[in-house]
Every structure is written in structure tokens, then in C-alpha cells.
Amino acid sequence: MLDDAAQGFGASHKGRKLGTFGLATATSFFPAKPLGCFGDGGAIFTDDDELAATLRSIRVHGQGVDKYDNVRLGLTGRLDTMQAAILIEKLKIFDDEIAARNKVAERYARGLSNVVTVPRLAPGNTSVWAQYTIRLPEGTDRDGFAAALKAQGVPTAIYYGKSMHQQTAYKQYPVADGGLPGCESLSQDVISLPMHAYLTEADQERIIAAVRGAIAG
């Protein structure tokens, strides 16, 4: 099993951290991620020594015993020293930032759960809240909602405007009988609010008020 923790690194399931399941787990250190560097970066976690050796080879042009002995097709996937130095320092406060993100998520849930659909964690899980994504009530003009928040200085984002099966690269793959109405509906209704570890309570109250006002209006 291969796991994708690009937006979930630091979270856990039934007491086990993501990255300890399956054969290998990939994560991203893109700046927008909970543990982000200042450019592109990422990592793969595995306890399989043979796979780790292969991945190290792929990371550096597919090299073998030396830099000019390329034994497989590879790429340039090395994390540069500057990004590694940034991540080492940010990793020291990562647990504190996860705790802060959870407080932000709890405040959003308290302030918005009676006007929009808020995300909820399944029992036994924790989240790092890479985004805080709400679902707008059926019939809400999402573009109008985003514009109303923008007018009050509140940015929003949509993750993601198309479901996977609607992407050009995947359109030839079969879907279930009747299509995937749940996925398609979510793609039309979801929108994400500001989320980071340093969002102050005052700023968050202003965001919550803006959301409630846009829904009521």
C-alpha cells in the first residue's frame, strides 16, 4: 500500500502517525502545507531498505554506484540545503503549530456549524487542518459568497473546483452507474477559509462574522 500524506503529515489514525502505514508514504513540504519550506520540497517515508535505496537512486538521475553510473530512469528530486535548514527549524515547533491549528478549527466549528456544513473528524483521528473547508448551503451562489468575503478583506480558496473524474486526464476511466453525483456536488459547494497556526482569535471572529453575514445576505 502506498499512502499520500501531502496535506496530512503530522496527523494520526488510532494513535499511529501518518507515514507509518503501508509500504511507503509521500508528503509535501510546499509552502502552503502545515509543515512547509520556502520553495518546493517533499519526502517519502518507508522502512523498506531496498525501496529506500531505489528511491535515493531515482532522486539523483537514477544513479548507481557513482554520479555517472545511471542504472535507471531518474529525476532531479533533491531537497536543497536551504529548504532542509528551514524545515529542521520549523519541525521543532511543528507540534505546537498543530495544536494551534486545532484550536482555530474548534473556533470555526463553534461559530459556523449552524449556518454551513463544517468538517468533522471521525473517532480515533487527528488532523493538521491543511485547509479548513466548509460546505455552503444548497443553492448558495459560491462566487457571490467569495466576493462578499473578499470585499471585507477575507480571502477564500476552492479545493477543488473539479472532481478527479472530471479532469481531462481521467475522463476515459469508467465511473459507477449513474456517475458520481456526490463528488460533483461537493466540487460545486465547498470553499476554504483562512487557516494557519497564527490566526488570532480577533481576526477569526471577523472571518466568522463575514461568513455568517454573507450566508444571511
Automatic annotation (TrEMBL):
InterPro entries from the UniProt entry: DegT/StrS_aminotransferase (IPR000653), PyrdxlP-dep_Trfase (IPR015424), PyrdxlP-dep_Trfase_major (IPR015421), PyrdxlP-dep_Trfase_small (IPR015422)
Organism whose genome encodes this protein: Bradyrhizobium japonicum
Protein name: dTDP-4-amino-4,6-dideoxygalactose transaminase
Alphabetical list of Pfam families matching this protein: DegT_DnrJ_EryC1
